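> tool_call: predict_assembly(chains=two)
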Amino acid sequence: MSGDMSDLVARQAHHEVAEMDRRLAAPHARTLFERAAKTFRGTLVWYWFIGPPFLLILLFVAYPTFETFWDSFFAQSDGAGQQFVGLEQYRRLGASDVFWQVLGNTILLGAAYLLIAIPLATVLASLLNRVRRGATTLKVIYFLPQLTSSVAVAIMFNYIFQPDWGLLNGILRQLGIDDLPLWLADPRFGFTGSRAAVTLLAVWTGIGYFILIVLAGLQGIQADLYDAAAIDGANGLQTWWHITLPGLRPTFIFLIMTGLVDALARFGDLWTLGGPGGAPARSLQTIVMFMFQAGFESGDINLAAATAVVFFCLVLIVTLIAFRGLLAREFAAQRSGRA
Amino acid sequence: MANADIDLDDVRRRTGPRATVGESRFAQAVIVLLLTIGALAMIVPFVWMVATSLSRKANTAMPRVPRLFPTDPSLFNYQIAAANLPIIRYYLNSLLVVGLTTFGYLFFSALAGYAFAKGKFPGKAFFFIAFLSTLFIPFETRMIPLYLFMNTLGLTNTYAALVLPFLAGGFGTFLMRQNISTIPDELLEAARLDGAGEFRIFWQIVLPLCKPGLAALAIINVIWRWNDVLWPLLVTSNRDLYTVTQGLAIAGRSQGIYTGVALATAVMAIFPVILVYLILQRYIIRGIATSGMKT
């Protein structure tokens, strides 16, 4: 989506300048002022097109974003208004054990989710790609949880993970497993605790979207590569390993980027399961829940603003690294082309 | 997006990797079996939820062996859930909020998208970058000042607070700009020669021509807004304004001990959505696949 963004903008700017030159050089316009006025009048209508949405973005995106950065450098003083405190709010964040725990939690949950979801989706999509009949039905089924809001899924899984009679432990018991996990009731790290449970939940919810994107990525791999592999006598698995997986590289980068950004912003399902505190024992609290709690339960707007800035920076870093990853090959190609 | 009408499955069947690899019936059977197991894992939780929601006993004693069909089917839990929760009201709220934001978002995205695709005016690059840069600002970054702003305007606990912040955005503008760029200039020039103004061209030529793009954007926006719970939790504390997702989240946290009732509530909140999805699945799947975006 955004790979060619800067290129687009540059091309546009170039085009625009060329157009201006052409108009300014028009022979029938007399004075410089007349020429400028003429150029301007014809373009006026476009401001009616971008004006209203631009105003909305200014009011509801730009202004509050600026306000977030601004507030993070202040503290509420005893009298009215607030007082400039520099980086004090950030120092408070840094000194807060809860903040570091929440940050680690957010990243851990995101990483675990992607480590399971991306390989699983790749395998399922590769299989789906080979199905002769019923692929559409299967796709619809895998995508189903995406449509049923993370909140509804969370409520359902609250009962599925119930240790005594929940669906999951019920099935495990039927399979002869006696030492049944406590899932959401167990705040410890590990494969049977609350974090594992919500990771399972996230994979179950998100897998359909990942499959669709990988399927789209599979279409982008050139068919002649497969022909060449067939001529070389590669078997199915070799072809998949040496051609399909490397061909999916941009898809993987895209999924890691969007998946990490989504994971950093995770809120709805965990709020439904554990409240803003991410019960049990904050094991499910993410950075957005921390922000929510600081801003709206403790009324500490400025600490929440500093958290929001940290969150913004994290998202930006992930996005920029992913862009670099996406563009790295193009840069390399350009460089070798010039040399 | 121009080839949105091409059946991807069909193209793959003819040109994709599968065509180059001869496959035995046995291999097909194994693949279908594996995928069916996966599909069951997706469906069984839903079936279990519906079965449990239909069991009155589920509120007091759940069977230790999970049942996928109720032994004592009754609508008791649904009656209790409906009495506790103004679910119809929530649906109307959600429809209003999702409907208004989607119409607004499509309109303003197409409006700006047209100017950026076909217009020539000073400052175009600047404005385009300004619109695009909103893509890098997650909503969570600005939600607290946005809430305070709504408070200052006296808009908390109004529909306006749920709608206004989501009427325009960089993503929709960018998507529509890409769409409108594919419309040939000659078409627009012809209309201009006939004396049509830019707004008329936009309304009568551009909008009808980018229906597939608008549909994809509409689907994405509906999913976004329908699923949103964070912003409604912040700006509305009045029960009468709750959306379905918000009402469900709050109810889920309070009625947790009554398994049957809680699951009946969840079923009421998702069943209509699943129905709409099954009717429109073709378009939804295609919309997601072509734009690469979701929640």
